[in-house]
Amino acid sequence: xxxxxxxxxxxxxxxxxxxxxxxxxxxxxxxxxxxxxxxxxxxxxxxxxxxxxxxxxxxxxxxxxxxxxxxxxxxxxxxxxxxxxxxxxxxxxxxxxxxxxxxxxxxxxxxxxxxxxxxxxxxxxxxxxxxxxxxxxxxxxxxxxxxxxxxxxxxxxxxxxxxxxxxxxxxxxxxxxxxxxxxxxxxxxxxxxxxxxxxxxxxxxxxxxxxxxxxxxxxxxxxxxxxxxxxxxxxxxxxxxxxxxxxxxxxxxxxxxxxxxxxxxxxxxxxxxxxxxxxxxxxxxxxxxxxxxxxxxxxxxxxxxxxxxxxxxxxxxx
Length: 318
What we know:
Elements: H1 13-33, H2 41-44, H3 53-76, E1 82-86, H4 93-99, E2 106-111, H5 113-125, H6 127-133, E3 141-142, E4 147-148, E5 152-156, H7 162-171, E6 180-185, H8 193-206, E7 210-217, H9 223-234, H10 248-257, E8 262-267, H11 268-274, H12 277-283, H13 292-299, E9 302-308
Parallel strand pairs: 1-2, 1-6, 2-5, 6-7
Antiparallel strand pairs: 3-4, 4-5, 7-9, 8-9
Helix pairs in contact: 1-3, 3-13, 5-6
């Protein structure tokens, strides 16, 4: 990274990469129980252990809220937009959008090469996944870490290296002038504030009309937050960017300081209250919840932050 050691950003990249497997496994469990529909997650995670009800509800709230925001952005732009999924892991958003007939001009996924190589392999081996990224007039280009389809691109990259990110974005044929949605789920927190700020500033300076959805920890300064940090530390996942996760205000401030025109941030308690009532009624019947307080604690320690460089997107909210 610009000739500097990466040790200052993440002490153990392998431990961070392993969080993708954890998240995919949790999504697979919630989908299997009927929290939301995703016929593609099983291609990336064959089986999983049963998760606690509060974990399943937490992933439901996260998945549904993000999908609502993505759908709104696509709708207001009539599909004339792009999506960049940062630290995408085994996310299946592209395929779910295709199923729903929601097309965009370009869809790019970025992650560590150790993750994208596995995703490339799964896509190559699975007819349903490969067909969706193929086009009769466009041959899919595939190597160990990267896949280039007609509108879908998957690229292995170290997000802490801005020049590398810029090169991958250029290779992906994205247009800087088109409205572009950036999505990150528990990604920036594993980078130092300096590195994540560099990335956010680069996006704000280069994309004429950008909208960002960031799902991440928040309120880490209390006892529950201390336990979260301690548990992650034991797994080798020190949160180098925890400073930006102290409150919803620090989450907003990180974007404003990086040159974004505006930002909003709400913890998942507030997000849960904004989800469709009929969906809340449905999922609360799937599993009994012994301790509502534990779910409330989890919800109060995660947040969704939206930011924009173009004030037209300030209304893309839940």
